[in-house]
Amino acid sequence: MPPLLTDPSAGGTLLAAALIGGLVRGFTGFGFAMVFIPLAAAVVGPAAAVGLIWIVDAPFSLWLGGLSARRATGREVLPLLAGSTALLPVGVWLLTRLDPALARWLTAGAILAALAALTTGWRYRGRPSLALSVAVGGASGLASGFAALGGMPLAVFWLASQSAEAAQVRHNLMAYFGLSTLVSGVVFLGGGLVTAERAVLALPLLLPYGLGLLIGARSFHLASDRLFRRIAYTVILAAVCLALPVW
Prior knowledge:
By secondary structure, the chain is an all-alpha fold. It has one domain. It is about 80% helix and about 0% strand. It has helices at about 5, 10-30, 30-45, 45-70, 75-95, 100-120, 130-145, 150-160, 165-190, 195-200, 205-220, 225-245. Helix 5 crosses helix 9 and helix 6 packs parallel to helix 8. The chain is globular and about 55 Å long.
């Protein structure tokens, strides 16, 4: 039986992770996986957690992606999607074969390096090149496949731009996730990560996640661009802490 029914503590953990992850995702446009995956993996295992997060997030990603599509910058989103699509299957392959502790160390190290660059004031000038966009998309695909952290490279990518505004970053992220959800759904189904059993487990999580998204989205309009970046950096730091294999 699902842990929501057989283990109140485990069920409470999943519900709380869905609510808090929804708040972060609704406010910043990313971060659901960084909250949900470490907690859910402790309850149902890493592979199941990745499949579960796709089932919970898919309806909302498609809806929010549609709302942001017209305001997103297509010349930035589409190359990222191409890179992600190419390497997403590799990430899923790694999920089932790479040592979990090694994967978590690699993830934490990459995020920490990117965060250090951002907080020290590093920014790239001008528009990102096509090669850079595809490479960042590939990193997102890998991260999404083996850790469901595909939003992290993208958030760092856009936050490092000198010209990117908070609203534009958020629209780009929302549009990207709407499109990538369709791609990852096919890959995850083929890889056995999305199953009927996990779909049943995901149903009770839809309400707290949707509530968190709503509150987070409405709170976004109350924040300045500077506050948005500070909150985004805090989420990134939290991701590093949660990803460390010492826990």
